[in-house]
Amino acid sequence: MKHLFIVGAQRSGSTYLYQLLDDHPQVSMAHPVRPEPKFFLNEREVAKGADYYEQTCFADRKADALYLGEKSTSYIESQEAATRIRHFFPDARILVILRDPVVRAYSNYRFSVANGLETKSFEAALAAEPERLTTACFSSSVSPFVYQQRGHYMDYIDKYLAEFDASQIKVLIFEELVNNLDQVQALYGWLGIDTTHTPSSLDKVVNPAPGGGTDTKIVTAFADLALCYRDSIARLEKFLNREITAWRTHHRQLVPASP
Question: Considering only CA atoms, which of 46, 40, 32 is closest in space to residue 5?
């Protein structure tokens, strides 16, 4: 049996990607989608072994499944999780779905607000982030206050490149994947499963971000973030060997002088 892991990023369309895969007859994703298994963050669970993992997370696996898949977006921030996954399943496929980091940061913020974790304004939360990185207390597996830093995607992808060959890692861009059957079927092809399948969830909105209007201060914060991410996006584009047009277009709108 083959294994795949959607390791992140948070608020980047990972649930949508999960549904695209769960819809495929040759893929059995771990159920339920929430709460996420986060199996490889739990040392006690990991100690029980690979058979226990499969029996626990995939009790309802499909008879014709070629892949068992898990989505746990906290994994992208954990070198230990990457190491444990590689130890269990050295041939695993790693999926990373990424969203415009400016939009992702705000979506992450709105999610924290909606769940009663955040009381500061967006711009105040961004200003407080450096201190919170070292002092904030939280009960979740990763900090709910890391809005800006999480958008520096290559810092996290490098954790998986240290454990897996680049050919095992697929980076997907949410803005390019959503409602794009060609992109979805190309993903199926990369996994080596039936590329003729059309998922019923292709055009469905999955796990939408909580609502929230924008004001002048937020627009300014967006522009500042766009400037902050210039070099980071360039690093990612170098890894992908192409430009991420959707992000570049949006950032030029936020900062007209942006390249």
Answer: 40
